[in-house]
Amino acid sequence: MKKEQKFAKYLIDFIDESHSVFHVVKKVEEMLNKEGFKKVKFQEKWKLEKEGKYYVTKSNSAIIGFIIGKGEIEKDGFKLIGAHTDYPTFKIKPNPEITSEGKYLKLNTEVYGGPILSTWFDRPLSMAGRVTIKTDNPLKPKQFLLDMKKPIMVIPNLAIHMNRKVNEGVNINPQTHTLPLLTMIDENIQKDNFLVGLIAEDIDVNIEDILDLELFLYGTEKGTLIGPNEEFISISKLDDLAMVHAGLYGLIDSKVGNATNVLVCFDNEEVGSTTKQGAASPMLRTVLERISIAMGKNREDYYRALSNSFLISADMAHALHPNYAEKCDPTNRPVINGGPAIKISARQSYTTDSLSSAIYEGICKSIKVPVQKFVNRSDERGGSTIGPISSTQLDIPSVDIGNPILGMHSARELGGVLDHYYAYESFKEFYRI
Ligand code: ZN
After folding, report:
1. In which domain, by residue range, is 195 found?
2. How far is the CA of 401 from the centre of ligand 1 (A)?
3. Which end of the chain has fewer CB atoms surrounding its CB within 10 Å, N or C?
């Protein structure tokens, strides 16, 4: 197997083991631990050393890994790669049990982010997230990560015979049409607290000790390489776990130079980033300043460090679609396996300017990684990402890039095997120079 396929398989395993944002962060933590990174906590005093490797987590759903450079922070600055840990899904509401006609037991859910709802129908689904458990101290309950692992529910489609226009596009109501079916009701089923009962059994605690739940649905089908030459990656959550994964390996595999290398994985990008663990929060700013303080620097040194820094905001892009070619910009048409795309927008929904674009392109060219450009059609609004939002918090020049994929926000997205390796190589080189 070629190195590109091997690396894409690592990504597939990484995504297949990350069934909630909390599990994404846990997985990243495990990999950093294995590589000798030490955990530091916001609550404690930081003692950092040159060339030391560290990470800090926020709310179990955001993580920042960093390696202190050999140089001086005020001169050599930070080299940052940013990505996001969250992705569109469904969140289970409190008191979720709903019965239908006294026969079916369904779960009440709400939509998280912007999924393509139709792609969630008829798939085996499970749930994962965190459970809060009672302790003696009401201010410090315990958190438990839960992953049911086996398929336990499904969102069934309506038969075409009852919905003849289904192939002409249908309106999907997220309160009534997408509730997952859990089980059939009979006299043996205790329908109140059914879900909590399942969970208590799974994690072996008393129902009364479960204080709260933060659970999300996920599809249990595994990811796979596809295509006659295994050129594509078909899996959920490529946006943006592919960039988390490529950034993580870039950080781990790169030799530390003078700059301090930082990988920041924010949560809540899909819902606007305005949470304590999102890109609009002071989280990253605080971490960078605390690194400076721990290295014995003053506030002016910190601001000088920011001015000598650079951020690659890495979030997936859209590839030219073979069946909807007209949806793409007429002259900038990134394709799968053509290399990472630099994302540009006059409206500044991406942070890229001509200088930061040239810097990223230069890095890629120096290691023979192809680069493409992505711009929205002028009559399509397009999305935004963490780059412009973190710019409101931090004065650091940045570029927005991402690998082009098809079916973004589908329950299964399609990306390129080569692109994933290219992104990794470009990140490793950025951290190295
Ligand atoms: Zn994204």
Report:
1. 89-219
2. 11
3. N
